[in-house]
Fold these 2 entries.
Entry 1:
Amino acid sequence: MAPFRAIFENRDSRGRILLVCEHASHHIPPEWDGLGLTAAEQLAHIAWDPGALDLARGLARRLDACLVHAPVSRLVYDLNRAPDQAGAMPAQSEVFTVPGNAAISAEERARRTQAVYVPFHDDLHIEVARRMALGLAPVIVTIHSFTPVYFGAPRAVEFGIIHDADDRMARAILAHAPVGLKAELNAPYSAADGVTHTLRLQANPYRLANAMLEIRNDLIVTPAAAEAMADQLAPCLSAALATITEGAV
Amino acid sequence: MAPFRAIFENRDSRGRILLVCEHASHHIPPEWDGLGLTAAEQLAHIAWDPGALDLARGLARRLDACLVHAPVSRLVYDLNRAPDQAGAMPAQSEVFTVPGNAAISAEERARRTQAVYVPFHDDLHIEVARRMALGLAPVIVTIHSFTPVYFGAPRAVEFGIIHDADDRMARAILAHAPVGLKAELNAPYSAADGVTHTLRLQANPYRLANAMLEIRNDLIVTPAAAEAMADQLAPCLSAALATITEGAV
């Protein structure tokens, strides 16, 4: 199977922030035959992060940032999970079952890992290493969205800022969060839930400052709403970046 | 410039230990014109880890282990260093100066990073991910050698076992170290000296057990000596592995 390469935008940018959108796409390539889901399920939040790519593009333009995003639905392979995490190819996601993921052989796990996970993260790694070698001191910020209602319960938080071992960038973003947004650290979930794989893989080994942003998807459901959110968050990220000291901790 | 790919041996092995030898080679490709070093300097310990590859091969055979090793001298790019570490392309190594590394532009840093560092670590990453997806629960062990005399001072330690954040495998190896060897934890140097990059990049993000082994190079200077050392260390690694529990910490 041909590898599904990462998609790059603004690759020549010189800004320090490197945006990553692992759940940008709801595309399920034909060989997986929709994973047994209905057409509606294939467009639900379990398949992607609605609005996240539009928001990330808006931020990339405003911040002179490179953006790296996924070509394939997280239901085929969740790029923010390691190959040995059950959530990498989830058989169950919130209230949905995913028939095509119900009984995955070790060979199929390896096949999806090689076709989707490895190409994306190796492409991203090339960019991280290139920017480090050029002295651009990248700061990795991943852009996600979350569903306003989860297992039937509404979520009050609007802007979640999640960190892994290095909390510098996350705390700086929280300190500069737009006043109109209900912002919270490590909500609606945290590193303890196994959701910070990209940060662990791409930022921690290099001591690069990093954060994972989660926006409630009802706030970025249309391109215009995503643009308005980018207008709010771009100055927040710029201000946070200014408080992060150069280079390694 | 064509990428310098990692070299694999025993790739079909099913053993849990994945051996890595970042300093296996003293080869300086012609485009770097010997980095301005004499022929003798190009074969000195600053260019590679003498004996490490022979030892690693001996271990790979005895442990049914996959072995991944470097095609290029660490003076072109030290694969156990991140692109922003000065030691990645050292201008000075112990008592030797490296003329070809004296004034490296950002573009040349990026060029070597893309040609040597990224291909090796992405090739290694593919193997780590593949083994995880197959349920083989890899344990990464890097094989190095060190010079018996450093800045004029003899070193007493013979077998150094170095750990990064996860010390499980290193402590287990120390507990089973051959009785005839002067073994020591975190000697002749430690993670604080910035020498554990491969462990941080390839093992820590996945919570894979790992260790870095350093053998004094006068003990493995001939192929026969390296074989004899492999005879001693293989049972030590097997015993250590047996004490490491499956999967994540």
Entry 2:
Amino acid sequence: MIHNLALAGCGNVGTALLEILNEKRAELSERHGFNFRVTLITDLMKGTVLEPEGLDLEKVLKDLKESNSLDSFPKAQGAFGELLERSRSTMMAEATPTNLKTGEPGLTHIRTALSRGIHVTTTNKGPVSVAFDELTTLAKSCGAKFRYEGVVMSGTPLLQMLQYGMAGCTVQKIEGILNGTTNFILTKMNESGSSYADALDEATSLGYAEADPSGDVEGWDAAGKVSILAKVIFGKNIPVSEVDRQGITCVTPEKIKEASENGYAVKLIAGLNMLNGIPYAYVTPKEIPLSHPLASIKGATNAVSITTDNLGEVTLIGPGAGRRETGQALLVDLIAMCKD
Amino acid sequence: MIHNLALAGCGNVGTALLEILNEKRAELSERHGFNFRVTLITDLMKGTVLEPEGLDLEKVLKDLKESNSLDSFPKAQGAFGELLERSRSTMMAEATPTNLKTGEPGLTHIRTALSRGIHVTTTNKGPVSVAFDELTTLAKSCGAKFRYEGVVMSGTPLLQMLQYGMAGCTVQKIEGILNGTTNFILTKMNESGSSYADALDEATSLGYAEADPSGDVEGWDAAGKVSILAKVIFGKNIPVSEVDRQGITCVTPEKIKEASENGYAVKLIAGLNMLNGIPYAYVTPKEIPLSHPLASIKGATNAVSITTDNLGEVTLIGPGAGRRETGQALLVDLIAMCKD
């Protein structure tokens, strides 16, 4: 069985998905009995290419590698819905840049696809934050599937575990390290005793932190992820602005050293707690006992501990970002949607 | 939608499943749109009770609690297949005691159910170890589903994660702490400096270790789990006898102390490694760097680190045993089989 796949957004993550699909062609057929052919790629910078019989992935990847373009292919024009139809896509992977205010351009892509019954996976936090209810309702009414494993912890299967692997459990509490940049900085401050400013400089020079690091260090990114978890797990709307949020700018090397001497590690913890049926969401630097797995999380790695009635505490540790890791999130959703 | 459920084996785990089903009646309907009614319970000690319209769970649980029996109910007689048919079961949860040599009585229960198209979940390592290929083939040919989340790490969703959450990844290596008893003993030796013999005594008095502890401390239990993982993940037969196995009886407090001073924790590691396409399976005490999450695993907790091409290392930590934790493994499989 061959599924026609549209890719919206061909940056790092979209390209990684194409690479994985190209590498794993034989394995996917053998193991799962189906495969994908990419019939549409659209990207704001690189233009739109379309081939209902399947684009030549080797050639696409050569173009992307050599000139960061799709210039070997004739460009297609048209509204997004029309392109989806001409490409006969039955699934779409959405990996355009995140806009947490409007959700665009991902939101329009996803609406357009779902309303045509095309299954969608996205790694884009924007549409999921802005329009989760609308999109899940639309998917249901159009008989399409909508998945978004990559919006938290990239391909580390946190959402899959919460929604399927722990089905039947009642989640009481979630606490985790959901921002790699701040964990890198705190790890650095702990290991080398460097100041916050020096550790931030190193994170920036290594590409972990952006030129304006406030989204990470003030806890906005982690708060956005907690807000998504509140929706997905508890079905509750907690806008980012209502997350009780404190970043790491006030954490000093002295504080970290003192905590360490007392048997604790300082971590930026994003949490969700059910208090009398009302979820309380927060992001705050917290002292974690060294005996707890979250204290051992180093560098840019992410981790989440989930407390439930049936299982007590379960902890999942894995990458929180990365091009191939996030491409994997798209792939795992595509495989699940083919199997459902 | 109501599913008729048969329960084979009503000991600790089976009873825990009944308790959870009774507690979560409303939640299951509300959240998943289906529910279960238990139409058959059969247990070697407690006899067989049957009611195609659904047994009164409150009354069953009262009986079990007050007299560890099912004596308020008239007993049914007959061959197992006939009982399944009379009870009109469409699903079966199998939780009889484990026999790693013959797989019985679970093996017969599972064969009988699958051959009638009845979906099966089991927490019983016996049948899965002894007849994995036969049972998966039988399930397929009869249009029945066969799941076994609870055979490794109880309800901690390791198998679900490997088979679904990480689909599309190629697993290169698995290393974990899969036996709670030995990890309890090693933790004790590390924290209080006690000898192996003293720590074992404590584990026995707390009910973690059995009267004959060799299954745990010689690494047989962990080897059995590695053998199952080799089958489930790599599709390879590695009999327990071919697992390169060393237990913890030779571990001394001095060795643990020395490792700790050098920044390591001694853990009984069960591993599977792909070497040139051939999986190598082992169980051995190993020094784990304190910076690695596996070093932080205390007491009877289990944990597994999985190394893959697309995600690097992902670690899952959770309970490895417990009546409710293992009952949850049955429940999560039942939910998945209803949704598939």
